[in-house]
């Protein structure tokens, strides 16, 4: 009996060693690159087509894509890297690059890009989004610029012009709030603006404040966010909910799915987002939807968010050359055109941008027009946490009246000081 | 020869438990030890140069952190309300399922559904039911004429916490129901008959026969649920992520967010150690109560 037990124990230990090495790849056959990117269910099939095209046209490298949900993706990158695992390549939001770089997760790409033929086709001002201290860590892949969607049919019905300024925007939102009879004959509530007050509320809030004169840091690098202008803008933002009631009552909990769903189903009349939702929204609403620039401040100042999604290479990838072969292909003409058309992005290449399709399509046209107003978010390691969670909680508290606009702004200033 | 055999006899049980101990050591004790060590360190992932031993600084900061105290208070209500109502509902369900009726086997199976459903799925399902714009709850209440305007259940400081607690009650009560049902089935029938002959009514039989026999099951399940509920983050994370504001911000979630959002593993470990010490108190009470009941067959 004991003999059997000891044989079993040895077999168990031996098999543990065998399986521990089970992940190692064979020497023959193509190199497999593991790639992570987040995609909504609506976009996932098209993204898979993109990956399939790479795999079809390349024999030495094959890409395996894992669709990681957007809200977990940052955490999963970091945790997998900490244990020496994770993908070879990954899409990354601009906000994460400083902290990823600080943790040593990113491979510098300058030496690869130097020999890459496609580099001159990329809009030169887009490289900066993936740079830290002059070193390139990301390949520009997707450009998303915030603009406004609005229900052109309802504006026409009420005889209102699309708002140019924040004051006109508030007036329009108030006028559009009320009830209407939908196509099914039901009387439903309608709200002027689909504000995002839940998860992911930071970008919308900062665009609103920056438009109205807020600043993150002054020219000496000191925090300048806690200014009277920011407090006033914050108060105005909160007023949309508390005073004007021109946003849905569920605003405090509304994240991406809720605001897009509300706009698509005719509950809200205006929505700020980027071209990433244009396919989904135009499919649902057809020609009832119009687009406009994000409103200017009352003295004419415009500000918008433009974020570049970069593809990066993990510093611990064992196949960096092959990884670059993939991420550079993703930033070349065929892939950029395919994803710009099908997944919604402003083309990052001059050659693709010049195509008639992108010049004539209203969503691309408004994105291109908005690019000139794009400002920069801070590039500090703490910014990821400020956007991801801290602002979300503070804005929710402010909307619920638990803290004042001033307290919210002061707290953000404290967080901004922690670079 | 005799000595050798007695030595191997003595060693035998240790050899048998060694693999389990090894597994516990690797997946439980080592991480706990690491967490304990980390709680005395500055360990923010994005600031590798500032990492190092800082003594009790994290603990001092924790006791001065208003969000920590707020989260602790929320944890208290989260645990007490969830477990109390789970127990109550579980007990009622178990008593019902112990009666003979048609379709009882099916009902016993159906009751388990909330328990076997992954927390994330339950969280998402209830979050959509209570969605402020499209939610089923609003739709039903509106059609019944109880409300005239949609209520943002999860976006309102007054309703968000009760809603996540209610979801947790729904999710956890089957555990009580099934455990208590097993306890009920082990009570000898002749005790009830004897009590009935002695003139005890339904209520009296419940108090003097049923409850004393269920005591060990109730203690065990309650303590287990207390610990699990205090440790849980998935349901709240899925439904509200601690919001709106800090409305549903329990300590386990704060620990998670400190680590994975702010990447501050030192401070997060400090709170985790504190929570563990707090739960050890419950485990101590449990051990004491369970030792009292040692003579019963159920444990």
* Helix percentage range of chain A: 40-55%
Mean pLDDT level of chain A? 89
And the CATH topology of the largest domain in chain A? D-Maltodextrin-Binding Protein, domain 2
In the residues of chain B, how many domains can be counted? 1
Number of helices of chain A: 18
Task: Output the keywords.
heterodimer, A: 419 residues, alpha/beta, D-Maltodextrin-Binding Protein, domain 2, 6-stranded mixed β-sheet, 13 strands, B: 299 residues, mainly alpha, MetI-like fold, two-stranded antiparallel ribbon, 13 helices, 2 strands
SSE order and pairing:
The complex is a heterodimer of chains A (419) and B (299).
Chain A: H1 2-20, E1 31-37, H2 44-57, E2 61-67, H3 70-82, E3 89-92, H4 97-102, H5 110-114, E4 131-132, E5 135-136, E6 139-145, E7 147-151, H6 152-158, H7 166-176, E8 178-181, E9 187-193, H8 202-211, H9 228-242, H10 256-264, E10 268-273, H11 278-285, E11 289-292, E12 304-313, H12 320-330, H13 333-344, H14 350-353, H15 356-360, H16 362-371, E13 374-375, H17 383-399, H18 405-417
Parallel strand pairs in A: 1-2, 1-3, 9-10, 12-13
Antiparallel strand pairs in A: 3-12, 4-5, 6-12, 7-10, 7-11, 8-9
Helix pairs in contact in A: 8-9, 9-18, 17-18
Chain B: H1 2-38, E1 41-42, E2 52-53, H2 57-63, H3 66-98, H4 104-111, H5 113-116, H6 119-129, H7 136-143, H8 160-185, H9 189-197, H10 202-231, H11 234-239, H12 251-260, H13 265-292
Antiparallel strand pairs in B: 1-2
């Amino acid at each position: 009996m004991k003999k059997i037990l000891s044989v079993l124990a040895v077999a168990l230990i031996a098999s543990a060693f065998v399986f521990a090495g089970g992940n190692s790849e064979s020497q023959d056959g193509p190199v497999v690159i593991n790639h992570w990117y987040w995609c909504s269910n609506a976009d996932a099939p098209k993204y898979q087509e993109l990956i399939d095209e790479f795999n079809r046209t390349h024999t030495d490298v094959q890409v395996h894509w894992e669709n990681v949900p957007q809200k977990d993706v940052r955490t999963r990158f970091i945790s997998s890297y900490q244990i020496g695992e994770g993908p070879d390549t990954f899409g990354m939001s601009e906000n994460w690059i400083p902290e990823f770089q600080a943790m040593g997760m990113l491979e510098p790409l300058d030496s690869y890009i130097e020999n890459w033929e496609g580099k001159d086709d990329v809009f030169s001002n887009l490289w900066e989004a993936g740079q830290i201290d002059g070193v390139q860590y990301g390949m520009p892949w997707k450009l998303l610029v915030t603009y406004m969607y609005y229900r052109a049919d309802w504006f026409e019905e009420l005889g209102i012009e699309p708002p140019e300024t924040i004051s006109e925007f508030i007036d329009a939102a108030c006028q559009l709030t009320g009830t209407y009879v939908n196509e099914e004959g039901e009387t439903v509530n309608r709200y002027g603006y689909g504000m995002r007050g839940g998860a992911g509320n930071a970008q919308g809030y900062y665009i609103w404040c920056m438009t109205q004169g807020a600043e993150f840091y002054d020219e000496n690098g000191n925090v300048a966010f806690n200014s009277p202008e920011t407090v006033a803008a914050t108060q105005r933002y909160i007023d949309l909910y508390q005073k004007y009631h021109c946003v849905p009552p569920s605003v405090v909990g509304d994240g991406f799915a809720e605001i897009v769903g509300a706009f698509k189903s005719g509950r809200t009349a205006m929505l700020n987002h980027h071209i990433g939702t244009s396919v989904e929204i135009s499919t649902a609403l057809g020609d009832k939807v119009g687009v406009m620039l994000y409103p200017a401040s009352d003295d004419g100042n415009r500000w918008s968010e433009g974020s570049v999604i970069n593809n990066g290479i993990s510093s611990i990838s064992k196949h960096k050359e092959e990884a670059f072969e993939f991420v550079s292909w993703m930033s070349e003409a065929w892939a950029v055109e395919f994803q710009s058309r099908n997944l919604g992005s402003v083309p990052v290449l001059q050659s693709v941008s010049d195509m008639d399709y992108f010049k004539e399509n209203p969503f691309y046209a408004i994105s291109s027009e908005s690019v000139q107003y794009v400002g920069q978010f801070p590039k500090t390691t703490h910014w990821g946490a400020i956007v991801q969670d801290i602002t979300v909680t503070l804005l929710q508290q402010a909307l619920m009246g638990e803290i004042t606009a001033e307290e919210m702004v002061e707290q953000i200033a404290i967080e901004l000081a922690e670079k | 020869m005799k000595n050798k055999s007695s030595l191997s006899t003595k060693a035998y049980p240790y050899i048998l438990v060694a693999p389990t101990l090894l597994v516990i050591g690797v997946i439980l004790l080592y991480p706990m030890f690491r967490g304990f060590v980390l709680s005395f360190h500055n360990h923010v992932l994005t600031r590798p140069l500032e990492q190092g031993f800082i003594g009790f600084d994290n603990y001092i900061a924790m006791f001065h952190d208003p969000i920590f105290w707020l989260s602790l208070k929320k944890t208290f209500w989260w645990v007490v309300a969830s477990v109390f109502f789970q127990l109550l509902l579980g007990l009622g369900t178990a008593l019902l399922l112990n009666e003979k009726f048609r379709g009882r086997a099916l009902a016993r199976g159906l009751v388990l559904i909330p328990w076997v459903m992954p927390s994330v799925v339950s969280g998402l399902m209830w979050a959509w039911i209570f969605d402020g714009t499209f939610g089923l709850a609003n739709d039903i209440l509106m059609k019944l004429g109880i409300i005239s305007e949609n209520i943002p259940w999860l976006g309102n400081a007054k309703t968000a916490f009760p809603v996540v607690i209610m979801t947790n009650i729904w999710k956890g009560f089957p555990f009580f129901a099934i455990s208590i049902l097993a306890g009920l089935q082990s009570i000898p029938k002749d005790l009830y008959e004897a009590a009935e002959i002695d003139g005890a009514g339904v209520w009296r039989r419940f108090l003097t026969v049923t409850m004393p026999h269920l005591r060990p099951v109730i203690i065990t399940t309650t303590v287990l649920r207390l610990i699990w509920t205090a440790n849980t983050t998935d349901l709240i994370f899925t439904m509200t992520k601690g919001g709106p504001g800090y409305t549903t911000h329990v300590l386990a979630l704060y620990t998670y967010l400190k680590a994975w959002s702010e990447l501050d593993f030192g401070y997060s470990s400090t709170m985790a150690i504190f929570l563990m010490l707090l739960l050890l108190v419950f485990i101590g009470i449990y051990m004491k109560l369970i030792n009292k009941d040692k003579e019963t067959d159920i444990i």
